[in-house]
Amino acid sequence: MYPLRELLIMEQLKKYFNKKSVYQILDIATGEGQFIKILMDIFPDASYTGIDPNEESLQIAKETFQDKNIQFFKMRAEKLDFENEKFDLVSISNGLHHLPHLETSLSEMKRVLKPDDLIIINELVSNNLTPAQENQKFYHHLKSYTDRLSGHFHHETWAKQKILDIIQQNGIQIEISFDYFDGKNFITETENIDFWVIRLKEHLEVLKDRSVYQELLPKVKEFRRRIEKDGMEHATNVVVVGKI
Predict the structure, then answer these.
(1) Which of the four, 43, 151, 181, 244, has the lowest number of CB atoms within 10 Å?
(2) Are residues 180 and 5 in contact, defined by beta-carbon separation less than 8 angstroms?
């Protein structure tokens, strides 16, 4: 069963896509296929393709959807191995800030989309957040920093208007957009404060041989203080449906 807020995102998209024919869907940076689960309730009769450069995540996705009409491929967004105008819909969820070649990737997404068809972009925002959401951003941005120093591209999240500007500047006309908060509280019985503090410290451990490590260590204590005071919740997303 989906949480109420997740049902609301599906209802908004269902309302917009009512009577629109969607048969072939490509999900970019699909990870373990989380966004495909939402799309399948909106487009139950469509065929799905998910691509991601991470083999481990793809293996989990293949096991999760093994009885579904879904294909998964190890592939990077900036070089899609599909013919022109193959898909009726292209989606990407919380993946824009993971794309090292953003403009090329968006160009590729447009290339494989049929004329006048649509792109769904679901992306975390970095502004107008509650204190609990700011704590998730604090964790996320520290993780993205350690990733970059370790040689893995991971941009910080952007403000909502910056995301909208990126979309429009890359030739995608915004048809609708709305904010979405899934209500996820990261502090649970099994994933408590200690769990997240230890996990953040583990992220920093990859830098332990660098001078920056000692500079970052106080951030762990700061993070504990913050989540003890305000908790930690998932940041708000902006959901955009765009046309090329």
Answers:
(1) 151
(2) yes
- The H or E element containing residue 139 is helix 131-149
Closest CA to 105 of 65, 155, 70: 155
CA–CA distances in Å: residue 61 to residues 37, 41, 57, 216:
11, 17, 6, 34
d(CA 206, CA 193): 21
Q: Per-residue b/e over 65-75, b at no fewer than 16 CB within 10 Å?
A: beeeebebeeb
CA distance 231 to 137: 12
Tokens of 88: 């009726």
Residues 6+ away with beta carbon under 8 Å from 105? 28, 77, 78, 99
Number of H helices, E strands in the chain: 8, 7
* Domains contained in the chain, CATH given: 4-243 (3.40.50.150)
Rounded-to-integer distance, Cα 60 and Cα 53, Å: 13
| 136-173 pLDDT, tens digit each | 999 999 999 999 999 999 999 999 999 999 999 999 99
